[in-house]
Inverse folding.
């Protein structure tokens, strides 16, 4: 299998001063850009799949595309199902070969979130995959600061203990789908959550300032999710190409979009501190420009 679990990617370098980048991919324009960035920076990376990708080309097709690309790459990647709310979908993805899954029960009553996440964790571990859950709620696109439900440390500790998740997504002040990087994070809350002992995840990082990301990496974050910013980078480069050549053919346009994704993903890998981590890799091969920094 060409994919690693998220636990194995963290094990590449035991230092706690860096984060794994999670990059949502939807087609080869985005996938190819992320893979090229990872190869160039020698960075481990998570290829993440969500509902947009399934609607765009189908779950079977996007997983097959990611597998083929990873097999041909010198990089090391996890293939992760993001924000799934259906255990049947998670089961299907695991059968198709993903190496990591997330059940998003953040909008459910707390006890139901625990129950369903625990079931997801068992499914994932049966397949040798890593499992992510969420406590607190990061607003979806269109949400505001008033919609943020910050993670309660006591609930997070109980959730981690009762579910056995490998990674825990927490709400620190970010919002999904933001196209500008303007949000700060509650660093004191993050320091409290770090004591739980489970690797912590930030969703909606496209809208978070770089300074906040740097501080959060020092304060305990281990996985950071990027989606909206990558799509924006692709669109920006395509627009630039069309402005220069209105009659440009489709394939050169897609190549321009892929280059935009590559450049921004590489920037984030440097920002997260994951660049160069593959040089000391000990994981078994047999295991499973500023204008672009605008808007998961």
């Amino acid at each position: 299998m060409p994919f690693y679990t998220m636990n194995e990617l963290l094990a590449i370098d035991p230092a706690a001063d860096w984060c794994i980048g999670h990059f949502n991919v939807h087609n080869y324009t985005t996938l190819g850009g992320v893979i090229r960035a990872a190869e160039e920076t020698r960075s481990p990376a998570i290829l993440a799949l969500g509902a947009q990708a399934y609607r765009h080309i189908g779950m079977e097709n996007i997983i097959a595309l990611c597998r083929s690309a990873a097999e041909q790459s010198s990089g090391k990647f996890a293939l992760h199902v993001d924000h799934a709310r259906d255990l049947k979908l998670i089961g299907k993805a695991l059968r198709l070969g993903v190496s990591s899954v997330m059940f998003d029960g953040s909008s459910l009553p707390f006890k139901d979130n625990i129950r369903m996440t625990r079931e997801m964790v068992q499914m994932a571990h049966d397949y040798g995959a890593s499992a992510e859950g969420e406590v607190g709620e990061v607003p979806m696109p269109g949400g505001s600061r008033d919609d943020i439900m910050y993670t309660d440390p006591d609930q997070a500790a109980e959730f981690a203990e009762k579910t056995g998740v490998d990674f825990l997504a927490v709400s620190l002040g970010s919002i999904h789908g933001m196209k500008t990087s303007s949000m700060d994070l509650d660093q004191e809350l993050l320091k409290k959550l770090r004591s739980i002992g489970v690797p912590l995840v930030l969703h909606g990082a496209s809208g978070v300032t770089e300074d906040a990301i740097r501080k959060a990496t020092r304060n305990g974050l281990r996985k950071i999710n990027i989606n909206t910013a990558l799509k924006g980078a692709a669109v920006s480069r395509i627009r630039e190409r069309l402005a220069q050549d209105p009659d440009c053919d489709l394939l050169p346009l897609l190549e321009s979009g892929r280059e935009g994704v590559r450049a921004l993903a590489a920037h984030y890998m440097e920002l997260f501190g994951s660049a160069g981590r593959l040089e000391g890799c000990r994981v078994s091969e047999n295991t499973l420009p500023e204008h672009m920094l605008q808007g998961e």
